[in-house]
Automatic annotation (TrEMBL):
<dbReference type="InterPro" id="IPR005103">
    <property type="entry name" value="AA9_LPMO"/>
</dbReference>
<keyword id="KW-1015">Disulfide bond</keyword>
<keyword id="KW-0624">Polysaccharide degradation</keyword>
<feature type="region of interest" description="Disordered">
    <location>
        <begin position="360"/>
        <end position="391"/>
    </location>
</feature>
<keyword id="KW-0964">Secreted</keyword>
<keyword id="KW-0119">Carbohydrate metabolism</keyword>
<dbReference type="GO" id="GO:0030245">
    <property type="term" value="P:cellulose catabolic process"/>
</dbReference>
<keyword id="KW-0732">Signal</keyword>
<dbReference type="GO" id="GO:0005576">
    <property type="term" value="C:extracellular region"/>
</dbReference>
<feature type="compositionally biased region" description="Low complexity">
    <location>
        <begin position="374"/>
        <end position="390"/>
    </location>
</feature>
<keyword id="KW-0136">Cellulose degradation</keyword>
<dbReference type="GO" id="GO:0008810">
    <property type="term" value="F:cellulase activity"/>
</dbReference>
<dbReference type="Pfam" id="PF03443">
    <property type="entry name" value="AA9"/>
</dbReference>
<dbReference type="InterPro" id="IPR049892">
    <property type="entry name" value="AA9"/>
</dbReference>
<protein>
    <recommendedName>
        <fullName>AA9 family lytic polysaccharide monooxygenase</fullName>
        <ecNumber>1.14.99.56</ecNumber>
    </recommendedName>
</protein>
<comment type="function">
    <text>Lytic polysaccharide monooxygenase (LMPO) that depolymerizes crystalline and amorphous polysaccharides via the oxidation of scissile alpha- or beta-(1-4)-glycosidic bonds, yielding C1 and/or C4 oxidation products. Catalysis by LPMOs requires the reduction of the active-site copper from Cu(II) to Cu(I) by a reducing agent and H(2)O(2) or O(2) as a cosubstrate.</text>
</comment>
<feature type="domain" description="Auxiliary Activity family 9 catalytic">
    <location>
        <begin position="19"/>
        <end position="230"/>
    </location>
</feature>
């Protein structure tokens, strides 16, 4: 009897509710998948940390964001994009951001020749949404996003020049801005807009460069100054024009998407990893060879897992174990469930609140189902699903044909401003604990507000 075991360990996931990361996005309420077509930090220990150097290229698409991912999501003209932020990348049930992190949010676009190859940083960015502080309800944009389960939605302007874009959500936490620690949380979604329009921004900005250290927007005293006068960072929401003299016309419209497609024969996926059916077999040697092929792919899945987790890898592991079991049972007609698609159906959600296009530092209130279509840059037209308030408890949008997805929530962990970001040492005034757990089934163990958590998956297979 021959035996072999496979030990795969995952690095500790970030465990601080003080931080957050943009993990995925939705198109007209339909999920693209965790870590699919979106750039984020790759180091699990720092995935949710903010960008600290405002002059760094990391300001564009986050640390590691200069390199694109393999997929590009196709979106219709005027589609609704919804970005999700999480404090724990692999656990959407946790509070998305600490209540002490107060500040504005924004969404930018950049027209590019390739959503995969463009590094993101540099000129060409234009803003399609910003929101600062609302005096009427004494809430910052971050307060509203926390109440909205970490979801930030914006309707793409109708009539944009078709082609590849990077879409960049942004949150700025100002709780320690006076101490020189403005905290930017950002990332980039890779999209292809199917549009015959020719609108481009009249002006663009460079990221980095659109905001500089020491400016009022990143050093504001939110505790003692009049927050209704807060100036949001960066440019105003862009004015669009079809004029040949407008900025961005040097980039041609692309009518046909030719990159970023999911492999047609993939039957499992996890971020940038894809699993493919193993060879068929009719004898013992072929059975074990197919099993070996399966386990090799599974190892790559675990090794390449994004910070959002490895649940698909566990599903793939079950497939491999079924092949081993068949080999041990002398059943050499396989593989079992040949060609079965292991990719789960796309999740459809209630996107909830949709903020007005520009909230800035003026008195403004979020859109409701009654007025959002007139105040958003452009509501989805006939090519996109209709939005309605039916079924929405908070008056936000729900896809008319969808069933809202329930999320578990947790109380805010703090109402006061947290200490400045310190890494890798333990932040001042916090008691830090490192917890290491070895388990058969991958899980996350939460201990304190700041901690490291290790996850290990132990997978064994035997063959005779």
């Amino acid at each position: 009897m021959k035996g072999q075991s496979l030990l795969l360990a995952l690095a500790a996931l970030p465990a601080s509710l003080a931080h957050t990361v943009w993990t995925d996005f939705y198109v007209d309420g339909v999920g693209q998948g965790d870590a699919v077509a979106i750039r984020m930090r790759k180091d699990p220990k720092t995935a949710s940390f903010p960008v600290e150097d405002l002059s760094s290229n990391d300001m564009a698409c986050n640390v590691d964001g200069e390199k694109g991912v393999s997929l590009v999501s196709t979106v219709s003209d005027g589609a609704m994009l919804t970005f999700e932020m999480r404090s724990y990348p692999n656990d959407p049930s946790m509070q998305p951001l600490d209540r002490g992190h107060k500040g504005p949010c924004a969404v930018y676009l950049k027209k590019v020749d390739s959503a995969i190859d463009d590094p993101g940083y540099g000129d060409g960015w234009f803003k399609i949404l910003d929101y600062g502080y609302n005096k009427d309800d004494d809430q910052w944009c971050t307060d509203k996003l926390i109440d909205n389960k970490g979801l930030l939605s914006v309707a793409l302007p109708k009539g944009l020049k078709g082609g590849y874009y990077l879409a960049r959500p942004e949150v700025l936490a100002l709780h320690n801005a006076l101490k020189g620690d403005p905290q930017f949380y950002t990332g980039c979604a890779q999209i292809f807009i199917e549009s015959t329009g020719d609108l481009v921004p009249e002006s663009t900005v460079s990221i980095p460069g659109y905001v500089k250290a020491g400016e009022e927007s990143v050093s504001y005293d939110i505790y003692n100054d009049d927050n209704s006068k807060y100036p949001v960072p960066g440019p105003a929401v862009a004015k669009l024009s079809s004029s040949s003299s407008a900025a961005g016309t040097q980039l041609k419209a692309q009518m046909t998407q030719n990159e970023g497609f999911k492999p047609k024969d993939a039957i499992c996926e996890n971020g940038d990893w894809f699993g493919f059916e193993v060879p068929s077999y009719s004898d013992e040697a072929g059975c074990w060879a197919s099993g070996e092929d399966c386990w090799t792919q599974g190892k790559a899945c675990y090794n390449d897992s994004p910070v959002t987790g490895n649940d698909p890898c566990q599903t793939w592991q079950d497939k491999c174990q079924a092949i081993n079991d068949a080999c041990n049972a002398k059943n050499f007609n396989g593989p079992p469930n040949k060609g079965k698609n292991l990719i789960p159906e796309a999740k459809t959600i209630d996107i909830g609140l949709v903020l007005p296009t520009s909230g800035g530092g003026v008195d403004s209130t979020p859109n409701t189902a009654a007025d959002v279509k007139s105040s958003a840059p452009a509501a989805p037209q006939s090519s996109a699903p209709a939005y309605t308030s039916a079924g929405s408890e908070d008056g936000g949008f729900v896809l008319a044909s969808s069933t809202p997805t329930a999320y578990a929530t947790t109380p805010a962990s703090s109402q006061a401003a947290p200490a400045p970001t310190e890494k890798p040492s333990c932040p001042e005034s916090y008691y830090c604990v490192t917890s290491t757990t070895t388990v058969v089934k991958t899980e996350v163990v939460y201990t304190t507000v700041y901690k490291d958590t290790s996850r290990q998956g132990l997978h064994e297979r035997r063959r005779r």
